Amino acid sequence: MYSLAELADRFGLEFTGDANTGLTGLATLADAGPADLAFLANSKYLSQLDSTRAGAVILSQALVERCPVACLIADDPYVAFARISALYDKSPRPAAGAHPSASVSPQADVHPSASIGPNVVVEPGAVLAEGVILAAGVYVGHNSHLGAGTRVMPNAVIHHDVRLGERCVIHAQAVLGADGFGFAQGPEGWERVCQLGGVRLGDRVEIGAGTTVDRGTLGHTVIADGVIIDNQVQVGHNCRIGKNTAIAGCTGLAGSTIIGAGCTLAGGVGVVGHVEICDNVHVTGMTMVTKSITRAGSYSSGTPMTSTRDWKRNAVRFSQLDSIQRRLAAQESRGKNIDKG
User: Fold this and answer.
1) Is 325 helix (H, G, I), strand (E, B) or coil?
2) Which residue in 22, 43, 243, 271 has the fewest CB atoms around it within 10 Å?
3) DSSP-derived 3-state class of residue 253
4) Same domain (yes/no): 160, 70
């Protein structure tokens, strides 16, 4: 439990209300009770503020007078909530050492503070730095390096020659360093192109559950500091993703895609191979990126949801666009000839 004053002091926030108010957990405005800390960062939930039973609410200065309970005042309430949430995180912190069922090569370099869970395999040449945590069933391949404070969740696979920076989080069943989809079509079928590169992650990178980051064909697949990648994302071989970019679930990046810093790719985005996206680009959900983007801004494709009846009508019209354009061009041409006559 933390008091209102303790939280304000720790995170540099102002507050209103009783400094000794005890807050034992976090909750939504609608569900919070007198011992809970809630937050308001989205105006969609403003109506819930009037009736909240929370012990305190994280919100902006503009809403303090409207709040019926104590407040923690933040310029960005959601960022403040994110920082405070770490204090209430109940995720288990396993003890240092290796579980008896783990298979750790004597040729691996394992810091004494590392924690190695049941049925983990650590191959020769692997390096586990200070405070690394490997949950049950993790595989760490030859000559891979996991930086200090990195956590790898159950059944994730780190293939050979993969380097993770410090304080990375790799969620369950993610795969880093699988072979890229490289094949040459020969006279008798597909010839496999050996994938000779590796994967390089910066510091504070988070990889979602079931996501795959393929190794490079010759050079490395590179993900810079602070990148966050959601669940079930495909990152093809030799991709490069810039600092602090965020990629939402079910996105697919074909090989050799280059994405700049500070970008956001919403859910279900597809990016063809060998294109570049510059810094500070936002790509909305289900967009198909078919060419390079050279100017910052927001980009979209696809069609918004509508009723099935209207969608069918519009689909028919879409198929008619080419003939409509041809007729229009012909009419314009005839009009120009008439004007000349």
Assistant:
1) helix
2) 43
3) strand
4) no
Helix, strand and coil content of the chain, in percent to the nearest 5, comes to: 20, 30, 55
Query: For residue 25, is it within any domain?
Result: yes
End-of-domain residue from the set 60, 88, 116 = 88
Count of Cβ atoms closer than 10 Å to residue 255 Cβ = 19
| Residues 124, 120: Cα–Cα separation, whole Å | 13
CA separation, residue 217 to residues 180, 199, 255, 272 (Å)? 7, 10, 10, 17
Q: Quick check: is 285 in a domain?
A: yes
The pair of structure tokens assigned to 237 is: 């071989």
Kindly list the catalytic residues: 237
Do 218 and 199 fall within a single domain? yes
What is the pLDDT at residue 230?
A: 98
pTM of the full structure: 0.90
- Asked if residue 304 is part of any domain, the answer here is no
Rounded Cα distance, 261 and 259, in Å: 7
Domain that holds residue 41: 2-88
